Amino acid sequence: MSIVSEIPRRRFLRGLGCAMALPMLDSMALGRAPRPPQRLAFLFVPNGVHRAGFVPAKEGELSSLPSILASLKPHRGDFSVLSGLDHNNARALGDGPGDHARSAACFLTGAHPRKTSGSDIHVGVSVDQVAAKTLGVETRFASLELGCEAGRQSGGCDSGYSCAYSSSISWRSAHQPMTKEINPKAVFDRLFLLGAQEETDAHRDKRLRLRKSLLDFVQADRRSLLSDVGARDRRKLDEYFEAVREIEQRVDRAQKGARKQRSDAGMDRPAGVPEDYGEHVRLMLDLIAMAFRLDLTRVVSFMYANEGSNRSYPSLGINGGHHYLSHHGNDPAKLDALQRINTFQIEQFAHFLKTLDGAREGAGSLLDSTAVMWGAGIGDGNRHDHGNLPTLLAGRGAGHRPGRHRRYAQGTPMCDLYVSLLQGVGAPAQQFGDSKGSVKLG
């Protein structure tokens, strides 16, 4: 394919005081096909799952899927179900109750958190932050930490454990959790306006006051770029601009319709958070996909909700709180509600995989160079267990070969999976957390 002109790799569209990032184009590759970067995403759900509807009956090829995973049927060749993985350090180990706090704190660190509700929190560095030290050196953001539920970084939330443990899965150091962003508007501005230094306060206020699209402000530069690139890049840019505008409109609708609500932790949810929880989750996942598409980051963690969340699901006809329902005592009505909640969570995951698969990159898609882990730090919420944790791994990044139910030996540390993922994306790792080795992904 002939290249009309060579575009600098880090070119932005600029106009009226703001700047907008561009996706990778053929014209940026100096005539050579760009090699897609490796990416990692970690998606966390609280309160465990209803295992009977989650785990396939047989090991091997995913020829059929259990009820909770039904929405993943179009992506049966894009993900694996992993069984047998444990987080031993989420267990009490003499510290008594507090399984919810421990499960979130241990989820990506593999470490046992210090039981405290004071400022002397201590757990461990999380796997996403280890990966970010390698994958984040060439991106604007070393990592992104997102979620859908606000939380506190101090005070007690679970049987003497700090709220920081329940509301954080990403940890920069043993003492410092990474603060997650739950407002889609704030994420949109970070991704597309590239920080306050790129847009003066006056221009930002003008844009918001006039309710104009970001695309309106970069129109001249946009037209110039489209005239400089080949037909394939023009198609890619048209798709990109359409996707940006669609996300921008959804963010604007959320901003207009948002009302402040109280979170489980007693804090106000900021304006800009959609009232509809499903739209909130999908919007955040779409923003993650766009961040990957723009190569603004290669490492993301996302919490559907804080661990122990008692969110209700009126859109599903469920008014009881999630945490309350997770203590089901084998009650059929509660188990049915849990299955519907888990099905909803998987439907959002399926939407994310569809978005990644639909974003073309080189000869493939974003899904071909991304490894997405979906899971929980609790297995069965009724028993608060931390063994045989519900875990899905999607995409073909990190050397993963999807399409199977893999059963590892009972008691295999979850951190063995993390070692394999780190090694698969080129991060130096022989040991992580309580790992004893690595697991097969291929």
Helix content: 25-40%
Compute the average pLDDT: 87
What count of helical segments does DSSP give? 12
The radius of gyration over CA amounts to 22 Å
Question: Tally of extended strands?
Answer: 16
Largest sheet: number of strands, sense, barrel closure: 8 strands, mixed
Task: Name the strands of the widest sheet in spatial order.
Answer: 4-16-5-15-14-3-11-6
Examine the coordinates and then state which fold CATH places here, giving the name of the CATH topology of one domain.
Alkaline Phosphatase, subunit A
Describe the structure.
The protein contains twelve helices and 16 strands. It has helices spanning 99-107, 127-135, 163-166, 184-192, 201-210, 214-217, 219-228, 231-257, 277-293, 322-326, 332-358, 414-424, and strands at residues 12-15, 18-21, 39-44, 60-61, 79-86, 144-147, 156-158, 161-162, 171-173, 176-177, 299-303, 360-361, 364-365, 370-375, 391-394, 404-413. The strands form five sheets. It has an eight-stranded mixed β-sheet, with helices on both faces. The protein has a two-stranded antiparallel ribbon with strand order 1-2. The model is unreliable at 1-10, 195-199 and 259-270 (pLDDT under 50).
